[in-house]
Write a structure and sequence with these properties.
This protein has 184 residues and is an alpha+beta fold. The chain contains four helices and seven strands. The protein has two domains: 30 residues; 130 residues, no CATH class. Strands 2-1-3-4 form a four-stranded antiparallel beta sheet. Strands 6-5-7 form a three-stranded antiparallel beta sheet, with helices on one face. It binds zinc ion and copper (I) ion.
């Protein structure tokens, strides 16, 4: 009897969670695995060949549509994801855990769930599109990165378009802004 009640409660809770406004906690159904970045893959946002550039990358897998989008940088992934038409879709997002892999050429074995990652905004490290968000599985690793490269740690859900556009360092700009010779 007790058990039945508990089961019923759990079921009801699950239903509430599922129908609750998306955006907070996504449902914990099995999520698709990350895919590899292939040598010719182009960024969904800017069209650059992803593998040619340093820094953490992103991917969005939209299960319902069986669609995979890849991004040259965490910056471009957020630029896409934060668009009003995308922000509430239930895609699975992956980014590189930069504690596990090289900045110059991140390895796909280090892909982690972006929604659970910690992001450093405003560091001196440059990604494919210039200033970027350094992604980490652990907050400690993010903290270590901040000690070395500056910036501020944000959770996935705290990131807004302003963080992507407003250049990032707020008050501690140390790098000469000379290396912006990115092709259009
Ligand atoms: Zn891009
Ligand atoms: Cu780009």
């Amino acid at each position: 009897m007790k058990r039945t009640t508990l089961n019923w409660l759990l079921a009801a809770l699950a239903a509430v969670t599922l129908t609750a406004c998306s955006g907070n906690e996504e449902q914990t159904t099995a999520k698709p695995d990350p895919v590899h970045f292939e040598s010719g893959d182009e960024c969904h946002v800017c069209g650059m060949v992803i593998a040619n550039f340093p820094g953490p990358k992103g991917q969005a897998i939209t299960e319902k549509e069986q669609q995979v989008r890849k991004f040259c940088s965490t910056r471009d992934m957020f630029a896409w994801m934060l668009q009003p038409e995308n922000v509430n879709r239930d895609h699975t997002l992956y980014v590189h855990d930069m504690a596990q892999t090289e900045w110059q050429s991140p390895d796909d074995t280090a892909l982690i769930d972006a929604r659970e990652a910690f992001f450093v905004v405003g560091s001196d490290r440059i990604g494919a599109m210039g200033p970027t968000l350094a992604s980490f599985a652990s907050e400690d690793a993010a903290q270590g990165f901040v000690m070395e490269h500056g910036g501020e740690i944000l959770a996935y859900s705290d990131i807004t378009l302003e963080h992507l556009n407003a250049g990032m360092p707020m008050g501690e700009m140390e790098e000469p802004a000379a290396e912006h010779s990115m092709e259009q």
